[in-house]
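Work Package 3 (structural annotation) set out to generate three-dimensional models for the target panel prioritized at the project kickoff. During this period the team completed the workflow that converts sequence records into discrete structure tokens, so that structures can be stored uniformly alongside our sequence database. As a representative example, we reproduce one entry of 284 residues exactly as it appears in the project archive.
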Amino acid sequence: MEKEIVRYPRIQGVSFTQGGTLGSFPQHWHNAAEFHLALKDGATYKIDGSTYRTEEGDILLIWPRELHEVVYCPKDGVDFIQFSSYLIESNSDFAAASHFLTECHLIRKKDNPALTEKISDLIFKIRDMHEQNKYFSETRCKLLIYEILLAIGDCILSERRENLRDEGFTDKLLGYIRFACSYITEHSAENITQAEVAEKTGLSQFYFSKLFNEYTKMSFPTFLAQIRVQSAINLLENESLSVTDCAFESGFQSTTTFNKIFHEITGCTPREYRKMHSRNHRQE
């Protein structure tokens, strides 16, 4: 259960890999999401214990912090993108719908040719943008990723809408979680509590906690920590700020807690992250 630290040497928060991993890659996990486009038949993966075999044109989805393994990948058999979990977790729409999104791991071309073609085209656009590295390339790449997430989300929710009602998930409940995610993100630098967010949402604390876990697949403290760490990452890029300043400005109440949670989520300390980030810039 190795934790991999995903680096973004060219565009912050987004990377593109052409050709994939030849052969195999052992079981690991990371905070980034990872979407694979199968260029050939025959790649085999394991995600959280389930096995997936892809054919040319299929799209494999690995969501943040999922344990996964490349069992076999043919030579030049896959292109893939990796992107920061913050793109999902800081967006109230996607954070609220993560319960449904993260259940989807394989979109087969033979079952949904229109969707796989659209995602393939968007991945190739990210590749081109990643190689060109022009002005606003980071923003353009992230907009393309949001297009992919929207296409997947629209497909999943439209296909499952009736079943979701049977399971007790409604647009009204989704609205509560969307509001809560937005409120947490906007006030993450403050000393907010679950009780406060529940009150603002209009739900009891017990029901809010249950609902939030069901929809986001995260507890309130975990979600808040993820948002604060990403805020700290953004602040650490400004080297005129001390690490302590970054900790408090992102909402942490002590540097000890900040260092501990930052390391748990990213796999490195704040100082190590800053050093690594600076070195990447010098190498460019």
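The mean pLDDT is 89.
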